[in-house]
Design a protein that fits this description.
GO terms for molecular function: histidine phosphotransfer kinase activity; phosphorelay sensor kinase activity. Pfam families: HATPase_c (PF02518), HisKA (PF00512), Response_reg (PF00072). One of its GO terms (cellular component) is plasma membrane. With 601 residues, the chain is α/β, with parallel strands linked by helices. The protein has four domains: 209 residues, no CATH class; 61 residues; 153 residues, Heat Shock Protein 90 (2-Layer Sandwich), CATH 3.30.565.10; 127 residues, Rossmann fold, CATH 3.40.50.2300. The chain has 18 helices and twelve strands. The strands form three sheets. Strands 2-4-5-7-6 form a five-stranded mixed β-sheet. Strands 9-8-10-11-12 form a five-stranded parallel β-sheet, with helices on both faces. The two termini are 63 Å apart.
């Protein structure tokens, strides 16, 4: 932002208070220059009968000459090119001001002033007016004013001291007091001017900051508008596919000849569609977890070759479907990171390459960089222009060209969150993320991970508890959505579980009491939605049901919330949390895992 764009005079650079004070010195000097021209005339007129005319004429010519030089200096200052420092301009002004003040001081000295009481009184008035009137004009530069007022008043003070008579003593005392008072008020004026300039700079800086914040908010608002439009499209696509597949099932059911193979194929397509929706919503969930600060970090030594092999196995088929060639180069190294978060980073990088570089070659490997390994995802896609590279890691960013390249039948272009999550997860882990690219030459995304000390330091992993799908459970289920409650009850019953369900805690208690009348009714697990009717949370519902049972029954909380404050509350509760939408097998495993973990504890 230039000085002229901030509302400041052109000479002022934001934050340069000394330069601004010099600028004020020149801008406020017009009154002093005008006084030099005008007041010289009555001085000559009054002194003419007592002072030789040649001497007065020479004095007046010198005053006008110096004033003309000062006017010329001011014109040069306002036409300057900026190469001369402000301090030089201040010194030039100060020297000419001192010389001019010496000429006025000569009026009150024995050079021009005869020892006549009326003329002494006249000169005292003139010098008092000139010295006091210069305070607003010259106080922006204290040295200029102090030298000028001393040059005007000291000769008159000395002149009065050497004269005989009490009146001259009064004049001398008056001049000395005036000198001290004027210097004091000049300093007060200087501080006021300096504070005003400083405050103005602060206001300009604040305005600039507010403008930048306004631009940032406007850009964020536009980005979120684009994001919501993309989200609406990308979420409608799988919902549309689910509707078509559900219609197919209904049609087959109406015909009454549902073949097992057909039903299984439609169910498989439904699961694939839901998995696609999961990927979209997982990006939102990761962003919200990072915003809430509830993304746990569990660093440990990792075998890089094993991690890269997982990537190859997971994405090989997807790459083949997109017409891409995925090649993973094994790397025998141990690195220090969080396995889940690093896997999420690499998932996003590989998925980004598959999405934006269809029918291209993708290479995943690692290089040794000092005491770290740089894991690279290299593609031969369209590449990214240098001007766009700073934006690719921003949230909701859709880089022109890439969206078109990746918009094929295999999937949507995404929500613009993947690389933003990569950047934030890497920052959380202390890893360095890099990008090298050029249009038409593909991209190299990299993440630098420190090496682990030694493979022997790997801590043995806690053995996973198997999710025994054959063991029936008795589940208290509370969800205020009737459709979700019905679907969950039906699914859990198909799995062989006993469900005491209801839309409220009271309804669940009633269902449990009804079941208890027919015999023993154990409760192995409480499954509660987080957001219930009348402002009740699933956490509170679990507490109420546990109080009714008189024991701490294992519990699972299900939520579709992604607000950071709610994620923080769920994290603080200590309950296992399932985020909607939940795949059937994931729900089945989570139910048994929660029960078995409670039994193991």
């Amino acid at each position: 932002m230039t000085a002229t764009g901030t509302g400041l005079p052109p000479a002022w650079q934001p934050g340069d208070v000394p330069a601004a004070m010099v600028d004020l010195l020149y801008r406020q000097s017009n009154a002093v220059l005008f006084a030099n021209f005008v007041i010289a005339l009555p001085v000559v007129y009054v002194l003419r009968p007592s002072v030789p005319l040649p001497m007065l004429a020479g004095w007046m010519a010198a005053v006008y000459l110096l004033t003309t030089l000062r006017i010329g200096l001011s014109r040069r200052y306002f036409r300057r090119d900026g190469s001369t420092p402000p301090q030089v301009w201040a010194r030039r002004f100060m020297v000419l001001s001192w010389l001019s003040s010496l000429l006025w001081g000569a009026v009150g000295s024995a050079i021009l002033l005869p020892p006549e009481p009326q003329l002494v009184a006249f000169c005292c008035i003139v010098l008092a007016g000139m010295s006091s009137g210069a305070i607003p004009s010259l106080s922006a530069h204290p040295a200029t004013y102090r030298g000028s007022v001393a040059a005007m008043l000291l000769p008159f003070t000395i002149y009065c001291l050497v004269q005989q008579g009490p009146v001259y003593g009064v004049y001398a005392g008056f001049a000395a007091c005036l000198l001290c008072v004027n210097i004091y008020y000049s300093q007060v004026t200087y501080r006021a001017l300096r504070d005003g300039v400083t405050l103005r700079f602060e206001n300009v800086a604040l305005i600039g900051e507010l403008e930048r914040e306004r631009d940032r908010v406007t850009a964020a608002d536009r980005a979120k508008t684009r994001f919501l439009a993309a989200a609406g499209h990308d979420l409608r696509q799988p919902v549309y596919a689910i509707g078509l597949q559900a219609a197919s099932l209904l049609t087959l059911g109406e015909r009454g000849d549902v073949a097992g193979g057909q039903a299984h194929a439609i169910g498989h397509r439904l699961q694939a569609t839901l998995a696609r929706m999961d990927n979209l919503l997982d990006g939102l969930l990761d962003a919200s977890r990072l915003d809430a600060g509830v993304m746990p970090v569990r660093r440990q030594p990792l075998h890089l070759a094993r991690l890269l092999a997982e990537l190859r196995d997971e994405y090989a088929e997807q790459a083949c479907q997109r017409g891409s060639v995925l090649r993973v180069v094994p790397a025998r190294a141990w690195i220090d990171s969080d396995p889940d978060l690093l896997k999420r980073i690499l998932d996003n990088l590989v998925a980004n390459a598959l999405r934006h570089a269809p029918r291209a070659s993708i290479l995943v490997g690692a290089r040794r960089r000092g005491d770290a390994m740089e894991i690279q995802v290299i593609d031969t896609g369209p590449g990214i222009a240098a001007a766009q590279q700073s934006r690719v890691f921003d949230e909701y960013a859709q880089v022109p060209g890439l969206a078109m390249a990746g918009d094929d039948q295999a999937g949507a272009k995404g929500l613009g969150l993947g690389l933003a999550i990569v950047r934030r997860l890497a920052a959380l882990l202390g890893h360095q993320v890099g990008l090298r690219s050029a249009p038409g030459r593909g991209c190299v995304f990299s993440v630098r991970v420190p090496l682990a000390a030694a493979a022997a330091q790997v801590h043995p992993a806690t053995p996973a508890i198997p999710a025994a799908a054959g063991e029936p459970l008795c589940v208290m289920l509370v969800d205020d959505d009737a459709q979700v409650l019905g679907a969950l009850t039906e699914l859990l019953s198909l799995w062989g579980h006993v469900v005491y369900g209801g839309r409220t805690v009271a309804a669940v208690r009633a269902a449990y009491r009804a079941a208890s009348q027919d015999g023993p009714a154990p409760v192995h697990l409480i499954l509660a939605d987080y957001r219930l009717a009348e402002g009740l949370t699933g956490i509170a519902a679990v507490g109420m049901l546990r109080a009714s049972l008189g024991r701490a029954v294992p519990a699972l909380i299900v939520t579709g919330d992604t607000a950071p404050d709610r994620l923080q509350a769920l994290h603080d509760s200590g309950f296992p949390v399932l985020h909607k939408p939940i795949q059937g097998e994931a729900l089945r495993a989570a139910l048994h895992r929660a029960v078995q973990l409670a039994e193991a504890a």
